[in-house]
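Open question from group meeting: does this chain pack into something compact, or does most of it stay loose? Before anyone orders reagents, we agreed to write out a predicted structure and look at it together. Recording both the input and the output here so the notebook holds the full record.
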Amino acid sequence: MSRTININIEKNGRPVRVGSICGDSTAEARFSYFDEYLQSEDARPISISLPLQKEPFSVAETGNFFEGLLPEGFSRRAVADWVKADENDYLTILEKLGQEFLGAILIDDDGQAERDTAYEPLSRERVKSLAAEGATRSTELLMQTHLSLTGASGKAGLYYDSENDKWYLPKGRAASTHIVKQSHVRLGHIVLNEQLCMQTAKKLGIEVPESFVINLGNGMDSDVLFATKRFDRYMDSGVLIDGLKCPGRLHQEDFSQALGISSKDKYERQPSGYLRKMFELIRNYCSDPIRDQQKLWDMIVFCFLIGNTDCHIKNFSLTYSPDLKSIKLAPAYDIVCTRAYGSTPEMSFFIGGELEIDRIGRENFRLAAHEAGIGEKLAMKRFDYMRNGIEEAFYDAVNDMLLAGLDDVKSISGEMLGVIKRRIKD
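Structure tokens returned:
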């Protein structure tokens, strides 16, 4: 008998059965929508790359979307080892980590997750262990809670009760409110680096999710966590779990999934038109394409100016309304000044025909505006605005973090400022 994984999506706060993945292995797995779902008046596709159709999708189309829901790197290998599966067997990992993805996809498990649903209080000591033990501890939480977060860095999905300053571990179908990341064993002060980037972006008018640093000691790497509020969750779902308001899920997909590009190809190494395809995606599918094209342009310019060469297409996303009827560009996320660590000098996609960051300048962005299909005059006005304003915005963000007691920001801000100065030189 062929293996079957039933797929649900949360819509207006309720899970809806949409289709299934069938196949004995990843080499055979094909997703198809249920006939009854296709026949419903308000049926919506779960991905732009998986439009409503009766025929099953190809193995590649299926894998590009569903494998894109899973962790990468160390976390992927650790989870695969835990479930005694090959790390390339995304079907088994999908089944085991199927209750809390990014977005609103849920794996049907015959009600087991519903029975296990709860919020488990986390002591300060347990939260601190998450900071001190890094990716190993976060992966353990992924395995305990059957939760999947994309990317290779150590991170966990937690629930934060801001009124009482308490953290909880979501279980079963309980949704998290925040994504919490640890410092990196090789990249010092990366928590402070990311918060500084996010706050600088915010001061330049770029939409970012609410974020803050959890300081559980004296601000050293082993004492801090980066917490960002999930933009794919909303709090007025009307559901209570253990006396806490449970968030509703908003569907999301990253640009890699929406474009039907494998996670393995998230970096553009040969000219393939990634930038053009991103803007075409917004023009063709977003409810307010003019606004969202400007927002995307601003994000790309900022990544260049801040020295973030890890701005691949999985780090840009689309979010859906609760009824799945409208789509918009998600806020900026996962922005780090990677050049402060001497990371690769290559951007994640070509900008005006150039990939190496030190060879990219204003003229490349002028060419990129034409490639993207947006007005050159407005695009370059935004470029100049951010180039002229980023240094002051950066200083303001540093001062805000110092006032918050994060004195260790001085240990990374100097190197970051040097990166910015190299980007804004004439």
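Observations to bring back to the group:
The longest strand covers residues 14-22.
The CA atoms of residues 303 and 311 lie 7 Å apart.
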